[in-house]
Structure formats: C-alpha cells, structure tokens
Amino acid sequence: MRRSLKLAAVVLSGSLGMASLAACGAKSTDNTASSGSSGAAASGLKVGMAYDIGGRGDQSFNDSAARGLDQAKSELGVQVNEAEAKTGEAEADKETRLKSLVTAGYNPVIAVGFVYQSAVEKVAKENPNVKFAIIDSASDTQPSNVTSLTFSEQEGSYLAGVAAASKSKAHHIGFIGGVQSELIKKFEAGYKAGAKSVDPNIVVETTYLTTPPDFSGFNDPGKGKEAAQGQLDKGADVIYSAAGSSGNGAIEAVATAPGNKWAIGVDSDQAQQPALKKYADHILTSMVKNVNVAVFNYIKAAKDGNPLTGVKNFDLKSGGVQLATSGGFLKDIQPKIDQATTAITSGATKVPTAPQG
Predict the structure, then answer these.
(1) Which of 35, 228, 250, 269 stands the most exposed, by the fewest C-beta atoms within 10 Å?
(2) What is the C-alpha separation between 280 and 240, in angstroms, rounded?
(3) Is the domain of 143 the same as that of 175?
(4) What are the boundaries of the signal sequence (predicted)?
(5) 79-83/46-50 β-pairing
C-alpha cells in the first residue's frame, strides 16, 4: 500500500534543502489551519517525519504515526514534512533522508521504526541542536538529543493471544512476523504466552517473512498472503500478523478462506482502515499500538518548550497498547480479556519479551 509522496510547492530556506528533499521523496505541508478546524495559529514549529518501509497508506504502523502528525498539524498549527523509505535501500539512504529534513530547517525530526537507529544516532551527533525522536528503538549509545518512543507490544499481544485461543475451534492458531527482529519477537512472545494461558496445549504456527538485512517483509502483501495460506492449510483458524502492510495480504487470505476463520490486525484498528473494511467481518480484533498518541505528545511537548527526553515507554496500563473492539466480536470473551488486562496492569502477570518454547 506504499504510495510515492512528491514534494509539494513550499518555500524552503536554501536551494540545497529543496533539492535534497525532492530527492528523498518528501512531502511538505503548510502550517495554516484549515477553515472550521480547531487548529491553533501557526506555531513556527517545523516537524519532519521519516517513515518506515510501507509509508503513509500502509493501513498499519506508519498510518498510526501519520495520524499523530496530522493531529499536530491541525491542533498545534505546526508545519510538517514527510519523507518515505524505499524497500531495499541502503543505510546511507536513511541518513540522507534525515539530513535533508535537518537541512530544510525541520526540528524536531521523527524517525518511524527501529531500522533508523544507526542513522538517527549518526545524524543526531552531527546536529546536536536538532531534536530527534525514534519510534520502537532505544540504545545506550544514542546522544542526548534523541528521544526514544517505545511500546510494550508484548502486553497487547498477550491479550490478542487470549482472544485467539478463546475463539479458536481448532485449538490451532498462527503468528506471522514481518521481519525476524527483536521487536517483532516481542509480539510473538506475548501472543504465545496469552494463548497458552487459556489453552496450554494449543498449537501455534510461527512464520517470519524475511530476516535482516532484508526488511521487505514489512511491505509485501503477497508474502503475507502466502504465509497465511500456509498456516490455514495446516489447520490454523486464527492468525495474528505483525508485519506492516504485508499483514494486509494475510488478512485477505483469512477473510477469503472457507469456513469461519479469524484474522487479528496490528498497530492500527485494521477493521476500520479503508483498504481493509471489506474484510471487517473476519477481523476478530487488532492489537492497537497508539503510535499516534506518542507522536502527538512528543510534538506538543516540543512546541510547549518542554521536550521529552530519554526513553518514553507506552504500556498497557498507560494506554499505549490495547485491543480494538470494532465489530463487537470480543463481547462473549470480554471477561477473559478484562481478567488478563488486570493481571498485567497489576503486575501479577509478567509478559515475556522473548518467545518461550
């Protein structure tokens, strides 16, 4: 679902900034609030956002970040510029994208996804007066002008596992990860633990689409569809995908399979995403990661002159992750979901961050 965003006409300081931004596929939007909106007057803050693979329009992770950026533009009056990643790009391309935003005067700059960790560290060290945020990654070596916005994905995924095991008639479910990385293993770990808390003998199929340095597993719906079909063929009747836009293919496979099969979405409430609404009757729930909230809070703090620093983690207790209730398909098992939620938020249940068994 990635689409190419071209640079809109906007006055940028310096011809180098204009040329560089055009080269990295950026889109700049002005800071004038639209008529009838609740947007504030122009704040003078210029926010750059560098998307992960899949970009705006992936119906998942990047779109959640984009919603936070859109909210900041509307309510805070900030000027924004969006730059997209390309599948198979080199590390130097990520650095160039970030540098282009800095050169054009955008500060802060938000990098969407752990794949930017090295690039953010390097560019931030070269530009100590610019604030950076990176989503889904934290490092002991990153400079003080970098803020990490992280999430307890394992906790939301635990609830997804409870839902999957409670709804599965085959006692056989599946997990599809986009890229076999430490981050996506958190999703797998929570999902398996939650499922086994309901049904210790449940079978959980696990498929990863790619391994680093190949990150195309986040942007290949065909691979997602093929993986889901393979798990369906083995008997799984509920499949959870943590795979960016590749998960759209998995949802399609589940929704078009014979019998009553369930898909579980990720990051955004995927039953409500335009490209996936036609499959909504087969989307049991989505493990929503409120990246939009983290992005908006980070930008607002910067605008207010109180920038967030260090590592800011958004967990189940703080509303950073949750299960979507679109379609009402969880109503009959809501007491189980509530019980599991209370156990996690109270500390009685410690959800693993690495797959167990």
Answers:
(1) 35
(2) 14
(3) no
(4) 1-22
(5) parallel
The torsion of the CA quartet 203, 209, 212, 218, rounded to 10 degrees, works out to: -120
- Domain limits for position 249: 153-289+325-345
From residue 328, alpha-carbon distances to 282, 325, 334 in Å are 12, 6, 10
Q: Tell me, what amino acid is at 102? A: V
319 occurs within a structural domain: no
Burial of 194 (C-beta count, 10 Å sphere; 0-12/13-18/19+): buried
The H-assigned helical ranges of 181-268 are: 182-198, 221-233, 246-255
Q: Nearest-CA neighbor of 149 among 287, 49, 217?
A: 49
Higher pLDDT, 357 or 73: 73
Pairwise CA distance, residues 48 & 34, whole Å: 20
Kind of pairing between the strands at 262-267 and 283-289 = parallel
| pLDDT tens digits, one per residue of 211-228 | 999 999 999 999 999 999
Tokens at 127, concatenated = 């530009």
pTM confidence score:
0.84
Strand boundaries in 56-202, DSSP class E: 79-83, 109-112, 132-135, 146-151, 172-179
CB 239 within 8 Å of CB 175: yes
292: exposed, middle or buried (C-beta count within 10 Å: 0-12, 13-18, 19+)? buried
Helix (H, G, I), strand (E, B) or coil at 96: helix
Asked whether residue 104 falls in the same domain as residue 41, the answer is yes
Task: For residue 13, give every residue at least 6 positions away whose Cβ sits within 8 Å of its Cβ, in sequence order, or none.
Answer: 104, 105
Beta strands 321-323 and 283-289 are: antiparallel
Residues 206 and 334 in one domain: yes
Tokens at 143, concatenated: 């400079």
For the cut 50, the answer to whether the pLDDT of residue 145 exceeds it is yes
Per cent of the chain over pLDDT 70 is 88
* Tens of pLDDT, residues 94-126: 999 999 999 999 999 999 999 999 999 999 999
